[in-house]
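S1.2 Input.
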Amino acid sequence: MKLTRISAAIAIMALAASSSRFAMADDDKGWYVGANVGQSRAKIDDPRITSDLLAAGFTTTSINDDSRDTGYKLFGGYQFNPYFALEGGYFDLGQFGYQATTVPAGTLNGNIKLRGVNLDAVGFLPFTDKLSAFGRIGANYAQARDNFSGTGFVNVADPSPSTRALNYKYGLGLEYRFTHAIAMRLEAERYRIDDAVGNKGDINLLSLGLVYRFGDDAPPARAAEPIVAAPAPEPEVAVARTPPPIAPAPAPAPTKFTFSADSLFDFNKAVIKPDGRVALDDFASKLKGTDYDRITVTGHTDRIGSHAYNMKLSTERADAVRDYLVKSDGIASEKIVAQGVDGLHPVTRPEDCKGNKVTKALKACLQPDRRVEVEVSGTK
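S1.3 Output.
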């Protein structure tokens, strides 16, 4: 029995992401495990079976093929960066077979079972912080176990041949992250296989599965801690025989409120959470009846990540706070401005948060740097 190459056209839907960004960072490094299950498919070489039977003196009247089965794989891997991983695992492609009816009267039955291990290099192309495409290429070491039997005038000389062989494999897929630890994969793969009777062929596997990443949980959010600056001291008035000209009173010092970014937003997001809206509404209530010149909203990130990404995220978060205060709390849009400043103004000290390798401990230490500051100027 020969398993010939399957000509399979696998089309993946084109994805448009007009506002997407690459949210994977160094903290995506680490180990993961997963499992897929789906349909495996082979093409039975009916012309070769007919030719071999004819050479043995038999005319084939019909052939019934069993070319589909359920396949699965178990795998584990290590993600080195957002774009590359090494992955190894165990696969079982199922069983395929045929029954040929002959003249003189008889039948020839054949089937093959395929399983083995693999090692792949996997490349990722992130579209958004949740959706990525990936491709893989690698090697498989598969065991093929054949079984042949005959009835009537058909006799089989070697009923149970088997072999183990090293061949290539490759595939394409999509991965969608539900959380930082749990993801779903849809993928199509092709395995090159030796069939134990001197032939090579391809088996396709279209499968769906889940992936679990270790140690990839976001740090817990911390409640907002508003910090209110002390009011400006009242100016002292000097008493003199001839009062000098009275200088204009200095402008009052700005009043600053600081909100933890983790209390306002989810990890790597710029959409205000329900708890964050409560904190902003409480801030706005304190301003009612107050005369002020301007409100400045400044978004800050920590020092982790690229400058371009941090500037984008800090600016989006500042804009989100500004827009919420204008829309929900009635603050005049001409009196409020927003800006992002990357991680240039940390409140933590370098000696307290050492190192450049991104770990949970470092992210937790730098949590105070991830914040949104709201400064009220010119209060009267």
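S1.4 Remarks. The CA atoms of residues 146 and 337 lie 74 Å apart.
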